[in-house]
Amino acid sequence: MIDPAFVALSLLPVHVWRDVGRRLRFGEPPATALDGVLADRWPDRPDRRIDLLARAQAAIDRGAQHGLEPMAWSDAPYPPALAAIVDPPPVLWMRGSRAALEPHAVAIVGSRAASPYALDVAARLAADLASRGFAIVSGLARGVDSAAHRGAVSAGGSTIAVMGCGADVMYPPEHAPLAAAIEARGLIMSELVPGTRPLPQYFPQRNRIISGLSRAVVIVEAGERSGSLITARCALEQGRDVLAVPGNVLSGRNRGGHALLRDGARIVETADDILEELDGVGHRASSSARATASSASRDPLLACLPAGEACDVDQIAERSGLTIAHLLPRLFELELQGAVARIGGGRFVLVDRSC
Question: Are the C-beta atoms of residues 317 and 327 closer than 8 Å to each other?
Fold first, then answer.
């Protein structure tokens, strides 16, 4: 049973979530974090705590009625890369299979009013990556997003749809059959409490989750003001790779994507381009047993993880001198080698190889 205080934290305005994330990473229990934020931000509203907890319990009850499973920031399966961003969702509401969170993920996003070319490319890239063991993350929107989800489903792979509404609310409504197919092998996910309607401000907000879940973000056709560029910006801030598919220079549909390419994003024509940018992590994920203990033990980053002590990324970054952007890929590699393991709250622990 989830602690209602976690849900209450998720009901706070998103602009205070950095403070929430900082408190949680410092080890404050959710109720203590809630009291601290309320005391700092709304000292003249003592009734706000009671109201938030009542709304939180109502959300928990509605989620149970609609088959949604809440996952708190402190739960062991909570994705550590997402837990490490500056404003992580205190709670994720999900329906589908948690196993979709286990593979490495790549986000594929782009225009809602996509050209046939963009739809074909998104579906092909998603199918190729899914067939190689990657989960595909997108936003279940019209256009490129839905094409990416369909490509992953067609390959029998996992895909994660991050919603800009409650996970029990179907938007856009015509994607209900696609959502059912995603749920069968992947996840429908939202940080918003059940019953939340799809309002415009929620869609840019959820883009940081799409990038936060992913090792890389691929932009397929984005105009100059495309919401996909928000996802790309979030990805860069989070230390993820950003890649873009070139498009027709005459149509003007991909000016945002071409701007990313001019700024140094890698050109993507095939899934192999993405795998090369990730340095073959998909291949290593399927053959990690071949990684040796000796190669892992020589990594100086392991010295920052004392035996038997679980450390979050902030602690490891402080000890190692690495930025979060450089640290997370290193931790992922050590996890693949079996040298470290991720546990609850976005923390990592050194694997005992003595037995």
Answer: yes
Specify the amino acid at residue 108. I
pLDDT tens for each residue of 332-350 = 778 767 788 877 666 788 8
CB count, 10 Å around CB of 24?
25
Q: How many CB atoms lie within 10 A of CB 180?
A: 12
C-alpha gyration radius of the chain: 20
| Rounded Cα–Cα distance for residues 161 and 51 (Å) | 30
Return the amino acid letter for 252: G
pLDDT higher than 90, residue 23: no
Q: How far apart are the first and last CA of the chain?
A: 35
Contacts of residue 239, Cβ cutoff 8 Å, sequence gap at least 6: 323, 324, 325, 326, 328, 329
- Whether residue 89 sits in one domain with residue 168: no
What average pLDDT does the segment 164-172 reach? 96
For residue 80, the model assigns a pLDDT of: 81
User: Is 235 within 8 Å of 215 (Cβ atoms)?
Assistant: no
- The range of the structural domain enclosing residue 59 comes to 4-96
Half-sphere exposure of 211 (CA within 13 A, CB side): 30
Mean pLDDT, the chain, rounded, equals 87
Is the pLDDT at 311 greater than 50? The verdict is yes
Q: Is-contact 108 133, C-beta < 8 A?
A: no
What confidence score (pLDDT) does residue 325 get? Answer: 63
What DSSP designation does 253 have? Answer: T
- Give φ, ψ of 243 to 5 degrees: -130, 160
* Domain end call among 282, 310, 338: 282
